[in-house]
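User: I need a structural model of C-type lectin domain-containing protein from Caenorhabditis remanei for a docking pre-check later this week. Nothing fancy, just the predicted structure tokens so I can convert them on my end. Input:
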Amino acid sequence: MKPFEPPKWVNITEAKGFCENMGYKVTGVATVEESKWIWKKVKVLLPGKRYHSFYIDGVRTKNCSLTRCNKFEFSDGYTVIDDAVLSSTNADLSISYNGIPENCLGVVDMGTAQTINDVRCDSTNKNVGVVCGYKLY
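Assistant: Understood. Predicted structure tokens for C-type lectin domain-containing protein:
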């Protein structure tokens, strides 16, 4: 897996296309160690930039969007997530920000030990990258 900065801000659909054009997928994060590894790479790419996200696989389920829960669907075909990845010690899952839904996942430097944040799925100046990867056999 590797974090990439596309040439422009992307939404989740464009992020998926960016990875697929290189033969990869937007990759999910299975362990806290993986998210911390990506987080360190993001901090090198964007030193001092807080709340700029690199999409990872995971979209909040439709039922959770309505009932404000934190269950996510993974489309990469290989992510089996460890419960600790989305625990409050590693993830800040607020469901929305200023009334705008945040139903996608991103690795983000929030200035805390947390590495994952729920982020908007549409294009914004804070969605600046994507983590692409493939299944290891």
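Before docking, keep this in mind: The longest helix spans residues 32-45.
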